[in-house]
Amino acid sequence: MQKSAKDIKIKPISSIDANKFVKIVHYSKSVVNNSVLHFGVFLNEKLNGVMQFGNPIDKRKVLPLVKNTSWNSMLELNRMAFNEILPRNSESRALGIAFKIIKKNYPHIDWILSFADGTQCGDGTIYRASGFYLIGIKKNSTIHKLVNGDILAKHGTSKIDFSGSKPLKGYQLRYIYFLKDNAKKNLTVPILPFSKIKELGASMYKGMREL
Asked: Structural domain of residue 9, as residue ranges?
């Protein structure tokens, strides 16, 4: 019998198991050390997906997105990695369940931030299907291809040698999900129509630029 998204199970897992899975399945092959919540997505009792939540790299820059946000009242979806074996719509269902768990067990969390990599991966189709709002589109100058072929994000705190690397052209899209309605009222930036993605030439799906 063919499985559906309703057959997946979501439960907390250890950071060790989550990081191991992400390094294999996520397109970046890397993890974010800031992650503090790790959810596994299981089908037939086998781990086939991981969602990791934690602090943004530079939290001070994102807190002003929503007025009256305290230091510990937001999270970033740092990594989301799913095997293609999972049924259709598993991503949006898994996010929905994860948000319910966060709302119940961490009631101080008001909103979730996430970024779509329109340079290597996609423009955030899953986020749009899951109730996120689009709040930013910008050209991405942080993704570099190193001389050894590795592709990494260049940040001010990075200790990687980027000598001779080449920046990849593309976009970064910023999304926000509100766990509490009153937090949405405090949003300090405009909500962008999804049509803006194609208008700016930022459309991408599974690493392929869409025209």
From this structure: 5-209
